[in-house]
Specification:
Elements lengths: L10 H12 L12 H13 L2 H19 L4 E8 L2 E2 L2 E2 L2 E4 L7 E8 L9 H19 L10 H21 L7
Parallel strand pairs: 1-5
Antiparallel strand pairs: 2-3, 4-5
Length: 175
């Protein structure tokens, strides 16, 4: 069932929406094993080490875009989320614009309490923004909508990254 805003879309946008909604999952590209980087992101978040979080997120994004054979994304991790009366911004995807590379911005601290964002929430935000890029570049959609299929793709990508983290850990480190 489409989200409520579907009824306000043009006929062309509805076709894009339905196409997006029909794509329910995305696997890690063949040969991409980002487990160590996922482990490093978790540790860097706990330590509040923004540069290390950014470096390891960029490594994952670089591996994903290379594996999917899509244009690169520049990722930046900023400290505190911006907020207004409507809430906090978790992530932002800015598509390629001419010679400007596509960019993802994510924040690692909450706006109100300035606490480090929970690891899984942070990782899902990165995946969410990567999925916007894939909508344009891998699936060749003219627009990227928040469809049920989009959220399923985000979830499948996040779950694949979490599984890669678990596969990287030795039994002694899983405690």
């Amino acid at each position: 069932m489409p989200f409520a805003y579907y009824n306000r879309l043009s006929a062309a946008q509805k076709r894009i929406y339905r196409t997006s909604d029909a794509i329910a999952s995305i696997a890690l590209p063949h040969g991409v094993a980002p487990g160590r980087e996922v482990v490093a992101i978790r540790a860097a978040l706990v330590a509040g080490d923004r540069p290390r979080v950014q470096r390891n997120c960029q490594r994952i994004v670089d591996a994903l875009v290379a594996g999917y054979h899509v244009p690169p994304i520049r990722l930046r991790v900023l400290a505190q989320r911006p907020a207004d009366d409507y809430g906090e911004l978790h992530g932002l995807y800015e598509p390629e614009d001419g010679r400007i590379t596509a960019r993802i911005t994510v924040w690692m601290r909450t706006a109100r309490r300035q606490q480090v964002v929970a690891f899984k929430s942070f990782l899902r935000t990165v995946c969410h923004e990567v999925c916007h890029h894939l909508d344009y570049e891998l699936f060749a959609l003219a627009e990227t909508f928040h469809t049920d299929g989009f959220y399923k793709r985000e979830s499948s990508l996040a779950n694949a990254l979490l599984a890669a983290e678990v596969a990287t850990k030795t039994p002694a480190t899983q405690e």
